[in-house]
């Protein structure tokens, strides 16, 4: 019996995928695998109970996409450099610099080496994205709902990283962490309320983060998932805004986004597996899920008899 030559088949399979996609998936998978191994070897998984097991992996849901997006600063440098504001010099330098920082931050959080510093710098970076690029871009086109959705997405990413930094500060700095935790909550709550409205009004578009992509026909349930997300967002967003049941609200919101990743974005990523767009939508929404779950981890555990306090 003749055995097939595996090497030509592997080369042919890789040739189907652009290098931009290959590098994104490689770094994404590597950071995810390293992070899981570290948490198992350190005994974190064995110590966590109940929902805390999911929160344990929230940092990886967040930083694995961040590191993967960092590779796109090297494989798609021209496109990345083009979105740097014109008044900022050295566009290519900033594209490479931010890409390197994203990869380094992903590895830092995954390995738990200087992870609080990495989380703090990520929070600052995404906030600067909002101030320097997204907010001015939306101000030039205030009627563009997708520009506003993108601005709120970056604000949510900043809030998620800030929540991680608060969590890593530990209980010994509880008083000093109260203000940044509240800021992180509002960075998440305001976009969630807006996203709820958008998903109710435009159910044909993908759920989670209401962007331009229309939910493909091959996705089972189609618009049903967008309406479901909108309903959960409405309830949890209001709770986060008023500061009631914040941990439970963020937890249910995170679980909802994770469900959307599984039923909508994983099928889309499989069908569009050779496209960077397919990867970006999948990783982007998983990162948003991680940001929400990081907020849940930073919120206080409420006493049953004094939840309102």
What's the helix and strand layout?
Layout: H1 6-16, H2 19-41, H3 44-47, H4 52-56, H5 58-75, H6 77-82, H7 91-111, H8 115-140, H9 145-169, H10 174-201, H11 223-242, H12 246-271, H13 276-298
Helix pairs in contact: 2-5, 2-7, 5-7, 5-13, 7-8, 8-9, 9-10, 9-13, 10-11, 11-12, 12-13
Please give the radius of gyration in angstroms.
Answer: 20 Å
How is the biggest beta sheet arranged? none
The global form is globular
Secondary structure tally: strands: 0
Enumerate the spans where pLDDT stays under 50 for 5 or more consecutive residues.
9-14, 305-309
- Relative strand content: under 5%
| Structural class by helix and strand composition | mainly alpha
Count helical runs. Answer: 13
Helix content: over 70%
Output the helix-strand order: HHHHHHHHHHHHH
Terminal Cα span: 74 Å
Kindly report the average pLDDT value.
89
Count of domains: 1
Structure commentary:
With 309 residues, this protein is mainly α. It has one domain (17-298). It has 13 helices and no strands. It has helices at residues 6-16, 19-41, 44-47, 52-56, 58-75, 77-82, 91-111, 115-140, 145-169, 174-201, 223-242, 246-271, 276-298. The longest helix is centred in the middle third of the chain and has 28 residues, at 174-201. The chain is globular.
């Amino acid at each position: 019996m003749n055995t097939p030559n595996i090497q030509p088949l592997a080369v042919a399979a890789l040739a189907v995928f652009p290098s931009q996609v290959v590098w994104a998936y490689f770094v994404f998978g590597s950071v995810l695998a390293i992070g899981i191994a570290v948490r198992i070897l350190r005994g974190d998984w064995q110590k966590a109970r109940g929902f805390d097991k999911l929160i344990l992996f929230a940092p990886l849901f967040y930083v694995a996409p961040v590191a993967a997006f960092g590779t796109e600063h090297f494989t798609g440098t021209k496109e990345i450099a083009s979105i740097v504001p014109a008044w900022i010099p050295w566009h290519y330098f900033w594209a490479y610099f931010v890409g390197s920082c994203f990869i380094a931050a992903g590895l830092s959080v995954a390995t738990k080496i200087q992870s609080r510093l990495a989380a703090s710098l990520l929070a600052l970076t995404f906030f600067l994205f909002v101030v320097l690029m997204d907010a001015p871009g939306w101000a030039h086109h205030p009627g563009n709902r997708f520009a506003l959705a993108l601005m709120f997405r970056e604000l949510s990413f900043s809030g998620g990283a800030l929540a991680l930094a608060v969590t890593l500060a530990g209980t010994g700095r509880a008083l000093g962490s109260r203000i940044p935790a509240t800021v992180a909550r509002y960075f998440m709550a305001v976009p969630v309320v807006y996203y709820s409205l958008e998903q109710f009004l435009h159910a044909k578009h993908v759920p989670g983060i209401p962007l331009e992509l229309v939910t493909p026909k091959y996705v089972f349930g189609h618009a049903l998932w967008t309406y479901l997300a909108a309903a959960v967002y409405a309830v949890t967003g209001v709770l986060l805004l008023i500061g009631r049941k914040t941990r439970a609200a963020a937890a249910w919101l995170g679980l909802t986004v994770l469900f959307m990743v599984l039923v909508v974005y994983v099928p889309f990523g499989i069908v569009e597996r050779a496209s960077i767009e397919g990867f970006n939508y999948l990783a982007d929404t998983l990162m948003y899920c991680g940001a929400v779950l990081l907020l849940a981890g930073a919120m206080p555990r409420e006493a049953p008899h004094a939840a309102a306090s």
